Each structure stands twice: as C-alpha cells, then as structure tokens.
Amino acid sequence: MDNVREQRKSRAQALADKDKQIDALQRQIDGVMDKIKAINNKDTVKRDGLNGMFKERDAVRKQFNTALKERDALRDDFRAKNNDWWNYQRALRAVKDIEMKKEKEEREAEEAAWRAEKEAEEAKKEPYEEEQALCDFLADFLERTYLGAPSNKNEEKKSDVVAVKEDPFAGFKPMVKKEEDTQFFGKGKGKKKRNRPNKKQDSLASKPFTLSVDTFDQFGMVSLNPPTSANQVEASVKELRAKKEWYSKQLLGNQQTANEIRKANEKKASKSGSSSNVNGNSKNNKGKGKSAPSKGGNKFSLSSDEFVPLGGAAETSTAPILSGWGQKPVV
User: Fold this and answer.
1) DSSP string, 153-202
2) Other beta carbons within 10 Å of 244
3) 28 or 311: which leads in pLDDT
4) What is the rounded distance in angstroms from the CA atom of residue 8 to the CA atom of residue 28?
5) What phi, psi does 116 have (nearest 5°)?
6) Where are the domains of the chain?
7) CA dist., res. 232 & res. 209, Å (int)
8) What string of DSSP letters covers 100-138?
9) How far apart are the first and last CA of the chain?
10) CA 230, CA 211: separation in Å to the nearest integer?
11) Which of 297, 326, 330, 293 lies closest to 309 in space, CA to CA?
12) Taking the CA of residue 236 as centre, how many other CA atoms within 13 Å lie in the half-sphere pointing to its CB?
C-alpha cells in the first residue's frame, strides 16, 4: 500500500507538471490564435473591397454589353439603309443607261438622215466643182500677175452698182472755170501732159518671178506642177485650163478631191513632226543652243551646201566648190 501511495504521488506530481506544460502551450496557442484572428480580420476587409470591385465590374460589363447590342443594332440598320441606297443608285444608273442608249440611237438616226440628205445634195452638185474653181483661180492669178491680162473686178463692181432713182442732183452740171478766174488765182495757163510709159508693162517685165508656199500647195491639190520661171507661166495656164476641162468630165469618186489631198498632207506633216520628236531632234533644247557634233561626224566643212559664201576672199576660194549653191534642181 505504501508503494502504491508513493507511485500515486509521483504520478500526481507528473500529471501536475504536464498540466503546467499544457497550460504554457495553451497560452502560446492562444497568442498564435490572436495573431491569426487579426490577420483574418485584415483579409476580410480586403475581401470585402474585392467583392465590391467585382460587383462594380459586373455592372460595367452589363452596361458594355448593352452598348455593344445598341452598336450592332445601329450597324445593321445602317447596312440595310446603305444597301437600299445602293440599289436605288443602280436603278437610277440603269434608267440613265437606257435613256442614254435611246438618245444615242436617236442621235445616230438623225446623223444618218443628215448624212443621207447631205449625200443627196452632194450628188445633185456638179462633181469636182471646188477643183475646177481652183484651176480657174490659179489660171487667172498667173494671167493677171505675169501675163498682164485685165482683171474682171471693175465689171463685177459695175454690175453690183444700182441706179439711183429720183436723184436730187440730176439737173446739175459741173462748173467750168473761166480764164479770168485762173489768172486771178495765179494758176496761169494749163500744163502740158507728159507722155508717161506704160507702168504695167514695165512692172511685169521687171517683176521677179516668185510664188508663195500657198500657191505651191494649191497646185499640188490639183496634181499639177507650178511654174518655176516666167517662161513656164503660159504653159502652166494651158495645163490649168485643160485640167479644169478634165475635171468637168470626171465622175464623182473616181479621183481624189482637194479636201482629201489636204487632209492627207496634214496627216503626213503630223507624222513627220512626231517622228522628229521621237528621234530626239527637238527634245529639251531650251537654252542649250545647237547640239555639239558627235565624234567623227557632223564636222564643219566649207564645201557643204549649208555654208553660205559671204563675198570677198570667201567668194574666190569657194566659188568653184559652191557654184551650184542656192539653185533648185529642175523638176
């Protein structure tokens, strides 16, 4: 029993020691729990703030979704109206195309009728009337200018004059001055008339033979060569008269008209001008003067036809070389 009592005391003492250790540990646990509670309180505050932000985000998202829906509705409405507008424009364009096509057909029909009427009028006219008139004009010009033929202008003017009816000066006569009046005014007796030579014949004889470029073109329109000297004028006039008679016997369409020849010459001139531009003859030469001669070619030479003798020593040195300068070749 004594041993049991001692064991009981020792065990009670051990239990008391353990209780003290448990109390110390419990106090430590309570301190840790207090710290955990403080941390949990802080987390709850943050969590409450996050929850409020999440709620605001959800509200903003709802507003954003409603705005997106409104935008989609407006876009669909705009697309529908835009499609209607484009369909209306296509319909208008189709109507305009139909009207333009109709106007074009009417215009072509009017033009065809006008051309048919013009062709009918041309068929009624005398064929090659313009060419015959041109032959007459050139022949009259050569005769008046170089053969001394009288012009018919005065006769035409007389035919244009209309006689005056009820002339108030019909009974008047020109006054003749008496000899006393002439002596009083100091004029004396009249002067003798001078015998002047015929200026027309002298001017025709001394007049140089020249033809303008237009005259050359007009001769080309009737397919004739112009005269190059005064001796050939009479033969050229005969050729022009014969050419007029030849034109009067031709049917319309057998020969080329003067207008067609003129257009062909203009086309050739335009082609030659364009070819010179392509070859670089007239390409950006402003302010640069003439292009320099290339090496081995285009050298200056006194014997070339482009050099003009200017008298003095030049004439004696280059006369045998350039004896034919300025003379046209015989056609």
Assistant:
1) HHHHHHHH--PPSS-TTTT--PPPPPHHHHHHTT--SPPPPP----HHHH
2) 19
3) 28
4) 30
5) -65, -40
6) 1-87, 128-150+198-273
7) 11
8) HHHHHHHHHHHHHHHHHHHHHHHHHSPTTHHHHHHHHHH
9) 176
10) 11
11) 326
12) 26
Name the one residue in this structure whose structure tokens are 């008298």.
311
CA nearest to 301, candidates 284, 285, 281, 321: 321
The listed range with the strongest mean pLDDT (150-159, 222-231, 244-253, 272-281) is: 222-231
The Cα 204–Cα 144 span in angstroms is: 10
Phi-psi region of 125 (alpha: psi -120 to 50; beta: other; left: phi over 0): beta
Q: Which helix (H) or strand (E) holds 247?
A: helix 233-248
Distances (CA, A) of 25 to 19, 20, 32, 173: 10, 9, 10, 171
The pLDDT value given to residue 291:
44
Both tokens of 296, joined, read: 């081995």
- Predicted TM-score of the model (pTM): 0.39
- 142, 258 contact by CB (below 8 A): no
The CB density around residue 135, as the number of other CB atoms within 10 Å, is 27
> Strand locations in 25-179, DSSP E?
none
Which DSSP category does 145 fall into?
I
Tell whether the model's pLDDT for residue 88 goes beyond 90. Answer: yes
**Spatial contact of 226 and 219, defined as CB atoms under 8 Å apart:** yes
Helices and strands in the chain, H and E counts = 9, 0
C-alpha distance from residue 310 to each of 317, 318, 321 (Å): 11, 10, 14
Distance of CA 213 to the CA centre of its chain: 29
Nearest one of 245, 247, 253, 222 to 119, comparing CA atoms: 253
